Amino acid sequence: MNIFFDTKQLYFIPQYLPVYRELEKRGHKVTLAIYPSTHDNIIEDIAKKENLNIIWVKNNEESLNAYKEGKADWVFFGNRCKFLDELHSFAKSIQLGHGVGPKTSYYSKSSTNMTVRFVEGAYRCKRLYELFPEGNFFDVGFSKLDPIFNKDPLPFDIESLGLDPNKKTIVYAPTFYPSSIEKFHKNWPEHFDNFNILIKPHYFSISKKKLRKQKKLLEHWGSFSNTYLAKTEDYSLVPFLALGDILLSDASSAIIEFAALNKPTILCKFLKVRLTYRGPFRYRFERRMDEDYKLYSEIAEPVEHYKDLKNVVEKHLSTPELKEQQRLQLTEKLVGTIDGQVSVRITNYLENYKK
Fold first, then answer.
1. Can you list the domains of the chain with their CATH numbers?
2. 257 vs 149: CA distance, rounded Å
3. Using CA atoms, how far apart are residues 97 and 8, in angstroms rounded to an integer?
4. Distance set, CA 203 to CA 37, 47, 77, 200 (Å)
5. For residue range 256-301, what is the model confidence (pLDDT) as tens digits?
6. Which Pfam families match (predicted)?
């Protein structure tokens, strides 16, 4: 089979890569179609380091032509596709979402029917069928975590980052909006100087001009001796999840991903919300966030104010069994089966597909 991965964003790659490897291993021709961005040189480096087959496409029209000329059998998408009807005249489509977060877009991106959407767990599969009864949804799990459960080698360790392997490690993985970044203390790594801190922000926080204030704060925190701020080339959250002892996050799917490893997770509920999302306009915020967001307070320990954060972190590190049952139950609900075999199930489906 000829299989393409439509790669509009750098952060799609960690979800695609385990599937890419499994397809490649079985002798299928696989290609990442990359759209230009501000970090083309980094993508080139990643492709060379990971030995990936890539092509460059400038826009939707060019990518459609590439799939047609490349005789694509299947094309993976991380989001919606604007040229689905044209694509379906010669190939089949797959939606493989890059995250399992609580935003309504998780569900709304299935408003156009792809040949199949691979889904994380029976609960989400059921909800998608209720919303889009004509769709084709297949429960496989979350491929991004396969390398951790398969114990694949990590690209770095705590010591190689210049941090202390004898200290516990906090991973802070905020999203770009609604975010907790602006509500953290300006010198918060100082308050946690008995820990290593790994900061892995959303790609937009370090690449979008309108988020330059977030970037400035992040770079300031990265200057502390106990802190490592992910570089753009550290495109995958996976090694950070593997190295962390506890996770701090807000509205990011990182909460679910880390909890799936059965490690303690803290939900930072002190968010910076736009004026147009506050008070009588809060319904706009709630409309942006899916009802699954309410489950975050069950799977993770909610913290309403930054001043309470350190005590809560220390409490959960000293007794990591707190919320363990909730983590296990909700992981099954929100992530599905986690056994390192998600990419195998996806590949089996494609190889055995009959229209």
1. 2-146+340-352 (3.40.50.11720), 159-334 (3.40.50.2000)
2. 12
3. 12
4. 12, 18, 18, 9
5. 899 999 999 999 999 876 555 455 445 455 555 555 667 777 889 9
6. Glyphos_transf
